[in-house]
Write a structure and sequence with these properties.
The strands form two sheets. Strands 4-5-9-6-7-8 form a six-stranded antiparallel beta sheet, covered by helices on one side. About 8% of the residues have low confidence. Helix 2 packs antiparallel against helix 3, helix 2 packs antiparallel against helix 9 and helix 3 packs across helix 6. The protein is α+β, with helices and mostly antiparallel strands.
């Protein structure tokens, strides 16, 4: 009798364990199958990437938006890509390319410029377009800035207590600048996750502020089945690619879905960093850009 009872208990326990295992396994399978159809979770750090040959550099969306402004202002002032490399290396060190409303003493903004040192008012310095222009205004006064060591030029502008600190950001800044300035075409891409509603007017305003007379920017509202879009006629191919990178960087904030430069097109994606695809049938000039929403 005792043996029979013990065997019964063991059978019950084994049965319970088997049922539990099947339930847990079923839940696991259900969750796995569910992920096949579910939207992907937001990436841990939504970002943009520059790819130059085998070298890559990544920054997040906030940094990318500010970096695109730095590149646009340089284009407007007719400055070479090296200027953007210097500015980005400086902004990395000073603020991590973030528009900070605080800093050492009265330092503010992307470049931690100080109102007390004549860089402008607090409101002006907190405007990335203004602060970028002021940085370049000081940079071009540095002797031989076009050929001198990038970190040294940054230090001549900033007069930091850590004069060698800018050097650590130079290599990364060069890779980013090459794509953002259009020096290397089709080298920029961004993830676009949960974009804001389409806002062509905002993007037109920012492109115009950034590129000035180097880019003729026009907006066309949605009409019937035609989506809203923006056209840019750039002064050079480099400006065309730079303004395209600007639009990619602001795609999350303005609802951009695709950008076309000449015969190449980029389509926004939340899952992968989309590459530029050739559109052979396009007759768009190499200095022309179409941004769709």
């Amino acid at each position: 009798m005792k043996k029979s009872n013990a065997r019964t208990v063991l059978i019950v326990i084994a049965t319970v364990l088997l049922v539990v295992a099947l339930v847990i396994g079923g839940i696991g399978v259900y969750r796995w199958v569910s992920t096949l159809w579910a939207d992907p979770p937001p990436p841990p750090n939504v970002y943009c990437q520059s790819t130059i040959d085998q070298e890559r550099a990544e920054i997040d969306i906030e940094q990318s938006q500010n970096a695109s402004i730095i590149a646009g202002v340089a284009a407007q002032r007719g400055l070479i890509p090296r200027a953007v490399s210097i500015a980005l290396a400086t902004a990395f060190q000073e603020s991590q390319i973030r528009n900070l409303d605080y800093g050492d003493r009265d330092s503010l903004g992307l470049f931690q410029q100080r109102p007390s040192q004549g860089w402008g008012t607090e409101e002006q310095i907190m405007d990335p377009f203004y602060s970028s222009a002021k940085f370049y205004e000081a940079m071009v006064k540095v002797p031989d800035w076009q050929t001198s060591d990038l970190g040294w030029v940054a230090q001549e502008v900033q007069r930091s207590g850590f004069p060698d600190a800018y050097d650590q950001h130079v290599a990364r800044s060069r890779i980013l600048a090459s794509a953002l300035t259009g020096e290397t075409p089709a080298a920029w891409s961004c993830l676009v996750f949960n974009p804001e509603p389409a806002d062509p007017d905002l993007l037109v305003s920012m492109l115009t502020r950034g590129y000035g007379s180097t880019a003729n920017v026009q907006a066309f509202p949605a009409e019937g089945s035609e989506r809203a879009y923006i056209t840019i006629t750039a002064s050079t191919e480099e400006v065309a690619w730079s303004s395209a990178a600007f639009a990619q960087s602001w795609a999350t904030a303005t609802g951009v879905t695709s950008v076309q430069v000449g015969i190449y097109e980029w389509t926004a994606s939340a899952k992968v960093l989309s590459g530029w695809i050739g559109v052979p049938e396009s007759e768009l000039a190499s200095t022309s850009v179409i941004i769709r929403f």
